[in-house]
Amino acid sequence: MKENRLVIRTQYYVEKSGTPFFCGPDELMFLGEWVTADIQLSPLSVLEAIDLVAEAQTNPAFAPEDLDGNAHTVTISPRGVRVENFFVDHVRGEYTLDDAFRVLIDFWDYCCQANPEKADARRRQYAEEQGRDPLEGIREYRGA
Fold first, then answer.
1. CB-side exposure of 17: number of CA atoms within 13 Å?
2. Which residues are CB-contacts of 43 (< 8 A; sequence separation ≥ 6)?
3. What pLDDT does residue 78 have?
4. Contacts of 113 by beta carbon, 8 Å cutoff, 6+ apart
5. Which of 80, 103, 114, 141 has minimal CB crowding within 10 Å?
6. pLDDT at position 1
């Protein structure tokens, strides 16, 4: 008997062959691809990126932070988020912190739908290790 399972869909992501696929607007494509290619379904990495973007939004003295992954390097600074692909020169983009924040929060929603227990456990772990919860006060947490 075939299992009847709902497909995960958020504002910017849809499940495709069991993995997240960025389906948002073209102008955010490289940002969305960075999330799916490098962060994938690692809730700790999603929370770290959310935390860094939130810090850059509120602290003008925030020192630029580079995140390297499988295919991309991303620089987060108070001026925005720069995405570059290691392998394809034309895959690069500059994004506002607000755009990056929206895409990352949306991907967090995807993580919560894909594996709510893991997302909740990693959120608690991150808060314990860092002394703060990057999602606190943002909006009602849907993964708990």
1. 2
2. 108, 111, 118, 119, 122, 123, 126
3. 97
4. 8, 10
5. 141
6. 44
pLDDT digits (tens, 9 = 90+) for 36-64: 888 877 889 999 999 999 999 999 999 99
What token pair was written down for 97?
A: 């912190």
Which of 88, 90, 73 has the alpha carbon at shortest distance from 38?
A: 73
Measured CA to CA, the distance from residue 136 to residue 122 in angstroms comes to 14
Which residues of the chain fall below pLDDT 50? 1-2, 140-144
Place of tokens 């993995």: 19
Question: What does the DSSP 8-state code read for residue 108?
Answer: H
pLDDT confidence of residue 111 = 92
SS3 14: strand
> What separation in angstroms does the CA of 40 have from each of 1, 21, 77?
30, 10, 22
- Tokens at residue 138, please? 């943002």
